[in-house]
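Thread: Modeling a multi-component assembly for a lab meeting

Hi all, long-time lurker, first post. My supervisor asked me to bring a structural picture of a complex we are working on to next week's group meeting, and I have zero experience with this. I have the sequence lines for every component (670 residues in total). Could someone generate the structure of the whole assembly? Inputs are pasted exactly as I received them:
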Amino acid sequence: MTKIAVDCMGGDYAPEEIVKGCILAYKELGIESLLVGDEEKIKHILHREGFGDGLEVVHAPDAVQMQEAPSNVLKKKGSSLYVAGRLVREGKADGLVSAGNTGAVLTVGKFIIGSIEELERPAIGVALPNPRHKTVLIDVGANVDCKPLHMLHFAVIGHTYAEEILGIKGPRVGILSIGEEEGKGNELVRETYPLLKASKLNFLGNAEGRDIYAGTFDVIVCDGFVGNVILKASESLGFAVLQMIREEVQKSLMAKIGALLMKPALNNFRKKADFTEYGGIPLLGAKKPVIITHGRANAKAIRNAIKVANEFLTHHFNERLSQNLKSLIPQEVKA
Amino acid sequence: MTKIAVDCMGGDYAPEEIVKGCILAYKELGIESLLVGDEEKIKHILHREGFGDGLEVVHAPDAVQMQEAPSNVLKKKGSSLYVAGRLVREGKADGLVSAGNTGAVLTVGKFIIGSIEELERPAIGVALPNPRHKTVLIDVGANVDCKPLHMLHFAVIGHTYAEEILGIKGPRVGILSIGEEEGKGNELVRETYPLLKASKLNFLGNAEGRDIYAGTFDVIVCDGFVGNVILKASESLGFAVLQMIREEVQKSLMAKIGALLMKPALNNFRKKADFTEYGGIPLLGAKKPVIITHGRANAKAIRNAIKVANEFLTHHFNERLSQNLKSLIPQEVKA
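Re: Modeling a multi-component assembly
Sure thing. I ran the full set together rather than chain by chain. Output:
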């Protein structure tokens, strides 16, 4: 049976909420986790929740801290994150979920678990909301200083994610640039463009920043530096907008009443807009699903992350990705 | 007397709103424009508005279209934009305002007007709103494929803009990267970091995407590719958020009433958030002020753009920029 290794010591509410999330995933979805971390603490929570020996626990004496340099995890072989990654690598677990130090989870994904054979590098894809549906932005931080071939791979990974997980057939793929016409953009974009054009992807050409939230593309490819700053800028813009609106609202009683009446609608919007609600961010192209959830993840978010990890398995994501890397990229480009 | 050359044939509402904007700038602020474009049409509007021969008109038989390739402007020597740029270069006007094809205005700024002696390239800086004040993001599209020295120059330009125009003393400067620590980021960032550190700028280190709208830095430096996609993504996110909220609001009568009550507060916010309200985007470091306004600019926006161009002159922006380039950058870096 499928088992997802869960780093029980990572995240702001670890181990309490993480363990509860594993219980939820088992009770509500029937998905088993391998709970990795401080055995005593984890078992205490399991017992208290009436889940005595229902879920397997693997002891790890150490934990990676949120503020620690990500590469440290490779030296901290007793950390829950490292142990969880090792269990996946050794085939004792089928996927990894962690709410811990994002960079460290990435490091484990890239260097302990590694990428599928056809890929040089895995990439992080996020499904960003737009008024029509969702757009996959890839890569948003796993890789800086990319080469054109990496970008082509990101496109195929994003295509596979859109098709297999988001259910978008024949996803429209673009490369993020400035200016719409071929030949516009920086060196990396100009060199990647012909590779995408020669591929069998549904490549529409350059996408611009404004396309990210407009629903005009299903997959937008960029290097991890650009994707990461866009993602973080977007989050920060969201917060700034809310705060600035709040300040304006505070100046008027009418507006305060209005805000109160609008609250349920705004909450609905917020749920749709928060891409972390869907169970975290996947490192795509790793040998087994790796799901990075928000540090603030509660039990429900962990349950959702376990669900997403399981979905990648039941949808045979990696098998489809391998096939797509072979069938969508012409032979001469691969060489 | 100071005269700003205004491209009267560029923008969605040209020449009508552009000419009216020049009249407003003269009537309300006492700033004279040189109106460049179809003489007959411009004079017709001036006469109709009771402004017969009050403002000088320079005829230009042609116009650059919005969808035209920006570089075309260099061949279209009879276009209002080219003529306006030429007047500035020849010293017959002291600045340029255009609501036309952004890329073409940039081309004129870079190649007809050119940058001040100490700079290799001018850059576009935008003052983005945040709950505390404003943050200058520079460059947002004038330069792709930058070198570390360009980035250092952008920092000094941004510093000067923040000090002289936004009134921020000792602006906190950061370089946009992924990860806070020195050594994080792509090659360009890693190579620029020591130059910024060695400068006399108030350099705080790496800024992350989340800092752009958080008010934690006054100036954030990035290459024009990255800045442009962030700027356009932000605008598009704003639209998407409004549309998604609108859809949620439509589902409930209460929310509809709430939205109505909140409207004045939301409009206030929108005014604060819309950086184009302040009179357009400046190309900083050009020999004379070049202000690019939105294609949708109306008379008031043009008036504001003329005002901003004039501010750069009265604040002696270029003189201060030259001084800063000399005094804030150590001799060994310049060489």
